[in-house]
């Protein structure tokens, strides 16, 4: 699956660079949005058909929140370490890391709250996080475990990477991934400005 994803991304870049005129971009944006919604719909249908997943979630209870908490701590630790290595302000580094893969929001927020350079760094670091997640999720699910495969996705585990997680794991993990993504997505608008002023 990872090889297919890598080939698809590379082919998309090649076709976009060589063949597609700029005028078609709005159509592609709309088409990819509809494709994403359709994929999420199919994941939802699969989850709805597997009622035992919801029973298992009730058994797990609040322990489910350990996954987003771990991802938050790991992301912030990575941001802190990277900031120290690059000689960046700690608050700025933590703010960029707290985008959790939601590149569109964190990039715009930091452009407005800080400056265009910080916004661009946030945008690119979170785009790369999502690309790395797309490639590594199937590998982590296969060679480590299903729950660990949610970590690279961050906030995107409720939308763009949810179909990949669902395909590489099982219904229970997909539902946990959705809850994780929802939790992190809700925290991004709070943590980005919080850490910027840290």
What key attributes describe this structure?
198 residues; single chain; mainly alpha; 9 helices; 77% helix
Structural summary, described in words:
With 198 residues, this protein is mainly alpha-helical. The chain has one domain. The protein has helices at residues 2-18, 25-49, 51-60, 66-86, 90-97, 103-113, 116-143, 162-168, 171-196. α1 runs antiparallel to α7 (116-143), α5 (90-97) packs across α7 and α5 runs antiparallel to α9. It is globular, with a radius of gyration of 18 Å. The model has no long low-confidence stretch (mean pLDDT 85).
Give a quick rundown of the structure.
The protein is mainly α and 198 residues long.
State the total count of DSSP E strands. Answer: 0
- Identify the overall geometry: globular
Outline the low-pLDDT stretches.
Answer: none
Total number of domains:
1
Give the ordered list of helices and strands: HHHHHHHHH
> In DSSP terms, counting alpha (H) and pi (I) runs of 4 or more, how many helices?
9
β-strand amount: under 5%
Portion in helices: over 70%
- Rg, alpha carbons: 18 Å
Find the structural class using helix and strand composition: mainly alpha
The average pLDDT score comes to 85
Largest sheet: none
State the separation between the terminal residues, measured CA to CA: 41 Å
């Amino acid at each position: 699956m990872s090889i297919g994803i890598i080939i698809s991304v590379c082919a998309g870049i090649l076709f976009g660079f060589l063949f597609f005129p700029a005028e078609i971009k709005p159509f592609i944006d709309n088409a990819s949005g509809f494709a994403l919604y359709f994929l999420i719909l199919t994941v939802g249908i699969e989850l709805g058909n597997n009622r035992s997943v919801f029973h298992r979630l009730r058994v797990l209870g609040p322990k489910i929140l350990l996954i987003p908490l771990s991802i938050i701590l790991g992301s912030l630790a990575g941001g802190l370490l990277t900031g120290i290595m690059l000689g960046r302000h700690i608050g700025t580094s933590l703010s960029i890391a707290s985008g959790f893969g939601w590149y569109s929001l964190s990039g715009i927020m930091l452009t407005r709250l800080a400056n265009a350079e910080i916004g661009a760094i946030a945008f690119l670091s979170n785009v790369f996080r999502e690309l790395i997640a797309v490639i590594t999720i199937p590998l982590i699910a296969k060679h480590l475990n299903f729950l660990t495969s949610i970590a690279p996705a961050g906030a995107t585990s409720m939308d763009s990477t949810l179909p990949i997680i669902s395909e590489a794991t099982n219904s229970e993990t997909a539902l946990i991934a959705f809850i994780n993504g929802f939790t992190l997505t809700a925290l991004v608008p709070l943590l980005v400005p919080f850490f910027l002023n840290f």
